[in-house]
Amino acid sequence: MENLNDKNVKLANLIFPEITKTVEDLEKIYPKRDLKEGAFVTRFAPSPTGFLHTGALFTSLINQRIAKQSDGIFYLRIEDTDKKREVDGSVGLLTSEMKIFGIYPDEGVISDTEEIGNYGPYTQSKREEIYKICAKSLIERGLAYPCFCTTEMLDVTRTSQEKNKIRPGYYSNYARCRNISIDESIAKIESGEKYIIRFRSRGSHLKKVVFVDAIRGKMEIAENDQDIVIIKSDGLPTYHFAHIVDDHFMKTTHVMRGEEWIPSTPIHIELFNSMNFEVPTYVHFPSVMIIDGESKRKLSKRKDKEAAVSFFLDAGYPVDSVLEYILTIVNSDYEPWRAKNPLADKLDFDIRLEKINSSGALFDQVKLNDISKEVIAKMNSKQVLDSVLEWSKKYDIELYDILNKDLEYSIQIFAMERDNATKIRKDIFKWEDIKSTFVYFFDSLFEKYLNKNGYIFEKDSKIVNDVLSEYISIYNENDDKDTWFSNMKLCASKLGFCTDMKEYKKNPENYIGSIADFSGIIRMAITGKKNTPDIYSIMKLLGKDRVINRLNNAK
RNA sequence: GGCCCAUUGGUCAAUCGGUUAAGACGUGGCCCUCUCAAGGCCAAGUGACGAGUUCGAUUCUCGUAUGGGUCACCA
Predict the structure, then answer these.
(1) Which nucleotide is nearest to A168 (CA to C1')?
(2) What gap in Å lies between CA A503 and CA A516, rounded to an integer?
């Protein structure tokens, strides 16, 4: 079948008269990369249809890390061959969101207007000539042909195949245009008939292709026998064709992509072989799943808010939290490593492909929260303040203004039970919770909060009033913590509260309440909340006037 | 439906034929304690099912079931 006869050449020239370069020319333009032995060349190749998907973050992170770990190259290619689906501005969005997560390509598209590197262009719509050179070579060798079938004709074929329970598609006898003589094709083209270019498959569905997936090991899948479209009517290639020519000429060593590509890998392998290109190593990642009622399914761009990485950014998860979470899913020995090296840079951890689990992991936001608590617990007050400031500037300007008004004060809020603390508080895992957690530190917010929620205790009850009045009379803002607490006990005991928790638990009926109840009233009066950090520290920060004020207001 | 991939507790998972089947999150309990968070200790909870290979199977093979993916001039 592979015969470079005059007729094929004539057909090829008729279809691509403007193409004069050859595959050999391309090989010279894109020479072998000068990299050390064993270096990986990887890529992330999204189509510009919107934001950065959480699964894509997963994919791009691994691609980047694997390349970096081997002193290789990681590049970003934009697969924009479907002009109908393209969304304006997505290249800019994609690259900027990747940047936020620290994923910088060494090569390729780096913003909506810039590309770097010697193996470009890295945007498929700019590579039309390259694909045509390759398609032309295929036609010359009888391995591709023009197809004149209309969409309607294809639809009819497919429906009848489905109806008769025959494997659908354009292959063997159903590949109507595959056996049209070259003379006839030429005549049709010359008469102006519309056509696209199809690959002439030589595979058999009865035979299997074998390839080794770096995660899954040996894979055996039926060979491709479909005469798939390689050049569409708009002159651009389909994914399959673009993939093999780009990854060949960009010298990709490892094609790492989602597992949804497994079924089409035989097509790719046949295509590589037909072009006499070396087949790269394939690595298929499991999909990130989400629970949907009873069952799990692939995280969906349309249905799931978690599918967009911006969801986590909006909520104020630190970038590191998301990254660390992904790393724990990618290699399950990341967590033990992290436990052993709490301060190490996460980039010091080497990802290993063969340790990636081949079944899809559920996206577990509770786990993310836990990891995020740890990440935030490692920050000092300055880092927290800076992060919150940065986040709120974009997402909560009211919070931003309040924090900014008195930075000295703001930093002390975050220093509480954090800087120099033996036990670091771990109740925050995303910045959007800051405001409601620390509402009582800001008079304007606190007032609004009280108006909405009121006090938790009964405002006019005798016991509350007694506690408050009694406490005001002994409160001294200069007390150290021990004095403060012993005074509190004194006061509580005078009113009939038990100051010993163990004793109280034994004989609760002997008291009107415990020291915990007593301090609880103070706490609620000052903060409007039942649960807060250490009330002594809060009072210290708030200062005498505000403390007295709040105690009085609560009466 | 055909084909492909997968299957260890609620979730993420370790084990490269022999273990009381790790660990983390979550859950429950206890301790600590001015509340909460944290921390410490403890507990409950797993090899989908059925065959085969083997002295021995979570591990290897084959079926079944279940879940997911894929079948375009979309990627």
Answers:
(1) B71
(2) 13
pLDDT digits (tens, 9 = 90+) for A512-527: 889 999 999 999 999 9
- Quickly give A357 CA vs B48 C1' distance in Å: 19
Closest alpha carbon to A97 in A84, A111, A85: A111
Domain range for A352 is: 290-377
State whether A386 and A313 are in the same domain. no
CA of A217 to C1' of B47 (A): 22
pTM across the whole model = 0.91
Over the stretch A92-144, which tens digit does the pLDDT of each residue have? 999 999 999 999 999 999 999 999 999 989 999 999 999 999 999 999 999 99
List the A414 CA – B14 C1' distance (angstroms): 38
Same structural domain for residues A243 and A195?
A: yes
Last residue of a domain, one of A221, A254, A285: A285
Q: Residues A151, A13: one domain?
A: yes
Tell whether A407 and A366 lie within a shared domain.
Answer: no
Nucleotides of B under 7 A from a protein CB: 1-8, 10-14, 22-26, 32-39, 67-75
Note the pLDDT tens digit of each residue in A49-68. 989 999 999 999 999 999 99
**Protein CA A289 to sugar C1' B62 (Å):** 30
**What is the count of structural domains for chain A?**
4
Q: What's the CATH code of the domain at A370?
A: 1.10.1160
Q: What is the dihedral sign for C-alpha A315, A319, A320, A322?
A: positive
- ipTM given for this complex: 0.92
Same domain, residue pair A169 and A261: yes
